[in-house]
Amino acid sequence: MADKESIKNEFLRLVEIMQKLRAEDGCPWDRQQTYESLRQYLLEETYEVLELIDEKRYDELKFELGDLLLQVIFQSQIAEEEGRFTIVEVLENINEKLIYRHPNVFGDVQINSAEEQTVNWERLKKKKERGRSTIAGVPSTLPALLRAHRIQAKAATVGFDWEKAEQVWEKVEEEIGELKDAVAENEQNKIEEEFGDLLFAMVNLSRFLRVNPEDALRQATEKFSARFRKVELEAERQHRSLEEMTLQEMDHIWDDVKKEYEK
Fold first, then answer.
1. Distance CA 53, CA 57 (A)
2. Could you tell me which CATH number the domain at 144-211 has?
3. Which of 223, 229, 220 is nearest to 253 (CA)?
4. Range of lowest pLDDT (58-72, 190-204, 232-246)
């Protein structure tokens, strides 16, 4: 376990470094940054962390987690300069939140599963913020699949959910039928609407299958990308371009590549 004094010292050192970078005699680039200009870096660092986790490159994770932590310190420093809040308040807030929402650890409430904890977490959140919608707190800027997953999960905490996976399968099949009907009618707006309903139903199914849809799609995309690059390399080996190949020829290479992955 990390030494508490070392944690405190390194954290304070990071805060002091950021303060120096933002000082009048600090770094011109750091001094001109704003909440808004840093958004892209916050998002970029988050995705870099996710990429390392997906690729199981855990030894490198400490570097990207540091970059992500820097963004929290950076935003907090700007807020302190504007008299809004300090990094201390950020830490106090999250500490109090964790203690309040884990009465099973810091109190005498009995919780026996992760599912029960999720329901209790949302219940406590709603209790403290009266009038708050059950599905509030899910950023509109989240990727659509992830946002759908989070909203459905929140609705489920108050019992607004399917009872069993079989019902969700039926809903998926129903939505496929409605999409086919919309395609047959050739109504583009209706096609888009029904396609969205099908995706939403698939996200519901993912919850019952205990699959994160965002992760699953990202992994599927990476798998396709890796295999497609091998198709390109095989075409180059044959001194041909994909543009001059027929679809049947490309499919033949694709099948060979797929078999390599299945070995």
1. 6
2. 1.10.287.1080
3. 229
4. 232-246
